[in-house]
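name: query_chain
kind: protein
chains: 1
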Amino acid sequence: MAPGGNVYEDVTESCTDYGVKSSLRSCGSASGRLGMTSNSGVHELLKCPVCVTVMYPPIHQCPNGHTICVVCKTKVQNVCPMCREELGNIRCLALEKVAESIELPCKYSCYGCQDILPYHSRIRHEKNCKHRGYNCPYAGVECPVTGNIPFIVAHLKADHNVDMHDGCSFNHRYVKPNPHEIENATWMLTVFNCFGYQFCLHFEAFHLGTTPVYMAFLRFMGDENDANKFSYSLEVGGNGRKMKWQGIPRSIRDSHKTVRDSLDGLIITRNVALFFSGGDGQELKLKVSGRIWKEQC
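structure:
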């Protein structure tokens, strides 16, 4: 299957797209209440017939009274999926008032969020919910896949053919002919399983001002608060020389471009890289090695 195929799309509207069963557990919360939810019959009434998730304003309806959420209205090209009537721009104001008056579980409940919140609080909460899906961290393509970490790891392996490595230390040899022809490029070399977490190693070629450079950095597959519990070091070298970098992995909540533009990684100019490579400077031969460790609390 090609990367970014439809089977992975729209997880932000429906966690159950990946076959993950939605569940709620009883637990306290500062941002939302747990325990008693609104009547399940009302929840069924508010479910969109296309994405099968609870609708919230604006809710649209066709002349026959069938309702649909605003996201799916565009997907079905303004045609009611129930009766094939044109949807137009008719709002179901009565159902919108119902939606605003009840409490709903966070749409990321299938990823572990236990909060039940009023409508307006739910929208604010979901924008920053720590359980929301992660974007695919694969560099070099704009992959639309979103999901939880186990799903993203499986996707990287199956659809992007990314190498998987168990252990907290690594060695790579990067060889590229005609390095002068590479002006802007990015590669994800490996995903590491270390301490039960996953890390992505990136290697990029770009211009820093007018100087062509290479940059290596590590991203953590999880949120920033967990990423900050780790440190890593990278060494790049060859021909008897090497350079070293030590840093904290960035969360994949930050795109690889964000990390690159912040220069938060090991940077080496093309001239130095070619010097490390030896020979006549016509081929890039770099050894990238490193290790990951957990900081003491």
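note: The CA atoms of residues 11 and 74 lie 16 Å apart.
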